Prior knowledge:
- The structure is a single chain.
- The chain folds into two domains: 3-71; 89-186, Arc Repressor Mutant, subunit A, CATH 1.10.10.
- Helix content is 51%, strand content 10%.
- It has ten helices and six strands.
- A three-stranded antiparallel sheet has the order 1-3-2.
- Helix 5 packs antiparallel against helix 6.
Amino acid sequence: MDGDAAVTAVRVLALGRRYVPIATVMELAEGDPEDAVLDLYWWRVLIPVRPGVLEWCARQPSLSSDEVYEVPYAVALCFRGLVEGRGWRADEALVGYLKEISEGMWGVMAEAAMAAVGRARSYTLPASAIVEECLARGLESEDAGRLIAELKGGGFISPLLSLKLTSAFRSRQPEYEVNKAVFAPLIPP
């Protein structure tokens, strides 16, 4: 993330809001406001709200005056850790989220999720990686399904439906986009 986008991200995240109107983002933007919005979208710090659309890549910013952006909860948790002096830590955000939603197996689930994310390539993670990491830790496939739902709900991953349809049919498994802002240091190019 370049300097202007990072400054804008800090200003927006410091508001502590889950939803932020474009006018607010533009006011807080460092440098070119439209570039800032597009950069923060690319990193998945801000995602346009589009009812009924699950995948982030299908929620392109329109930059219209009535657009509202969602801050994924995973990003908010990483930012909280940064502000509190613990750093921007995906593992800590994941554990915190799983505890907050009362996931009884939060420790092993977080371990499986972090191991699976380590297998992502180009910010794409096959569902099989999550299932395999869960099974390797003695969890059931139902637990893996629950973990996938929890990761989606927390803004750690998003389904890749339209852009990866051909490869999903070929591999016969769902794929997910990993939140770049949360996991960038952990994913090889």
